[in-house]
Amino acid sequence: MSPRHDAGLDLPGDRRSAPADWCEQWTFDAVFTDPRDGSVLLGVAVGVGRHPALGRGWYHAVVVGPGRDTVSVVDTDLAVSNGAGGLELRSPGLWADHNPTAAFGHWTVAAEAFGVALEDPWEAWGRAFGAPQPVGLDLEWDPAPGADLAGLDPIDADLGGTWRVGCEVHGVVLVADERHEVIGFGTRGRSWGTALPVAKGHHWMWWRDDNGSWFTHAARSDPDRDPRDAPSPAVSVTAWAPVLGGGGTPLAQAVVRCDDGSRSGVGWLHQR
C-alpha cells in the first residue's frame, strides 16, 4: 500500500491522546553539489520531534562540508504543539518552522538560529564548545518521481512506523557571513511510535548515483563497532555531522560516498 493513502502518516496531527512514551519525528537531509564537477559543497540535516502527550520536543540542524567546521544547532527539550498544523518551534536563539502544502508533497523548512561551529564534530556529544555562529535555512523539499525509499510497517498512523522519500531540494543556506543558493537532492520522512527512528546498534543510509537513481541500505551494526566508523556500503566520509537527538540520544550522521559494487553515489548515513 502506498503511504499516500493516509495523510495522517505524514502531516502533524492532533496526538494529545498519545501515550507518554509515544513520539514522532520528521527528518530532512540533503546534499548540495558543485554543478561543475559534482563534488560536495554542503550537507544539511534537520530533525524535529515531539512527545505530544508531554508537549515537549527536540530539534537539530547541522550544516557540514568538506574542509569546514561542523555547524550545529541543537535543543533537546523544547515546548511544542501537540495538535495539528505546522511544526513551528521557538526558544531563546531559535526559530524554526516546517510546513507542508499537502500530504506527501512539497514542504518548506526554515530556521533562524544561533549554532556553534565545531572544529571537532564529536564535540557535539560533549560540551559542544565552539564559536557561536548564526544559521539560516530557507529550503524546499519536493518528492522526486519514483523515489519512495522506505515503506510502512505497520501501516498505521497511530501505532508505529516509518517512511522516507527521495526529494529534490533547493533554497538558501546562511552560515555566519556566507550565503549559499543551493540546488541538490535529499530525503524527507517521518517516524513514529515508542522508539527513536534509528535503534541503538543499527544504521540506515541512502545515496543517489550520477544517473539520478536512488539506493538505500539498512542493517544492524556490529555491536563492537564504534559509531564513528561508517559501515559498508559507505566507502568514505565527506563530513561527520553528529547530533543529540530525542532525549539527548547521540546520533552519528555523515555525508558519505557509497559504492555497492555496481553503482556509486553520495548520500547520508544515520546510525547509533
What are the defining features of this structure?
16 strands; six-stranded antiparallel sheet; AttH-like fold; 272 residues; mainly beta; single chain; eight-stranded antiparallel beta barrel
Description:
This protein has 272 residues and is an all-beta fold. The protein is built from no helices and 16 strands. The strands form two sheets. It has an eight-stranded antiparallel beta barrel with strand order 1-2-3-4-7-8-9-10. Strands 11, 12, 13, 14, 15 and 16 form a six-stranded antiparallel β-sheet that branches. A hairpin with a 4-residue loop joins strand 15 and strand 16. The radius of gyration is 17 Å and the shape is globular. The mean pLDDT is 88.
The gross shape turns out to be globular
So what's the CATH class? Mainly Beta
Q: Can you tell me the number of structural domains?
A: 1
Share of helical residues: under 10%
Q: Largest sheet, order of strands side by side? A: 1-2-3-4-7-8-9-10
Number of strands: 16
Outline the biggest β-sheet. Answer: 8 strands, antiparallel, barrel
Total helical elements: 0
Q: What is the terminal-to-terminal distance?
A: 29 Å
CATH fold category name: AttH-like fold
SSE pattern, N- to C-terminal: EEEEEEEEEEEEEEEE
Beta percentage is over 45%
- Rg over CA atoms: 17 Å
CATH architecture: Beta Barrel
- Averaged pLDDT, please? 88
Query: Which spans of ≥5 residues are poorly predicted at pLDDT below 50?
Result: none
Structural class: mainly beta
Short overview:
The chain is mainly beta and 272 residues long.
